[in-house]
Amino acid sequence: MEYFRWNVDPVLLNLGPLQLYWYGLLFVGSFVVGSWILKLIYLRENKDPEVLESLFVYIIIGAAVGARLVHCFFYDPSYYLAHPMKIFAVWEGGLASHGGVMGVLLATWLFARKEKESFTWLLSRLAIPAALSGAAIRIGNFMNSEIVGQPTDVPWAIVFERIDNLPRHPSQLYESVAYLLIFVFLLLVYRSVKPAFATKILPALWFITIFTVRFFLEFVKTKQAAYNVDQTFTTGQWLSVPFIVLGVVWLVWAFISEKKA
């Protein structure tokens, strides 16, 4: 069978000594679009959107720092403990989405505390554009020919020529499509329920859907951590479990508190 072959240059533009990567464009672009979506939500709920510029500075820093630290200390700790200065070499690649989520949670809490805003209200509204950002970032991984799937003979397999000549699952595209559907689902829920209930339920739905997708798609991905090649579950799956449990507990609490109310 002749499979689709993928060999796109990860660099979109060369600007002298600077290079613009597809991944960077999609990463930042997703935050710009997310900011616009959140602005519409703020206006819909009669809140001042002027704070969003400051909020997204918090979120971008939190996401980047959290994603880098979790990649270093959960996916290849022996290397980075032996070469601590390499932790700062972000241009060499290595960002973990679980760490990005942890960083965003902390950044959101710090921002809400500073602005005297409800943390759960803010988190519930951020959940909607966050799913869209996840979809865009996985397209960036596809452009980089990274986080590839395991070899397969399914008709839609792709040969990532920058990796090898084996047909593989396009796991980045699976994940991107799943996150895009979750974005639509969360948006529909937000528009269908009362704002107070949306505050309670949206974070729970985000944790459950995003990390359940992540858990099951890990089965078709090549294993990313340097030390878990022979393990049944990957590092990504182990890191997903606490978030799924958190989401389930949060969802139960949301329905119980709503019933009491």
Describe what this molecule looks like in 3D.
With 261 residues, the chain is mostly helical. The protein has one domain (10-260). Helices cover 64% and strands 7% of the residues. It is built from 8 helices and 5 strands; from the N terminus they run E-E-E-H-H-H-H-H-E-E-H-H-H. The strands form 2 sheets. The chain has a 3-stranded mixed β-sheet with strand order 1-4-5, with no helix packed on it. Strands 2-3 form a two-stranded antiparallel sheet. Helix 1 packs antiparallel against helix 5 (119-143), helix 2 (52-75) packs antiparallel against helix 4 (97-115) and helix 4 (97-115) packs antiparallel against helix 5 (119-143). The longest helix has 26 residues, at 235-260. The chain is globular, with a radius of gyration of 19 Å.
Total domain modules: 1
Ends apart, CA distance between termini: 60 Å
Q: Summarize the main sheet.
A: 3 strands, mixed
**What is the β-strand count?**
5
Strand order of the largest sheet: 1-4-5
Average pLDDT over all residues: 91
Oligomer state of the chains in this structure:
single chain
> How would the global form be characterised?
globular
β-sheet strand percentage:
5-15%
Which value, in Å, is the CA radius of gyration?
Answer: 19 Å
Number of helices: 8
Contiguous uncertain segments of 5+ residues:
none
Task: Give the helix/strand class.
Answer: mainly alpha
Series of H and E elements: EEEHHHHHEEHHH
Helix content: 55-70%
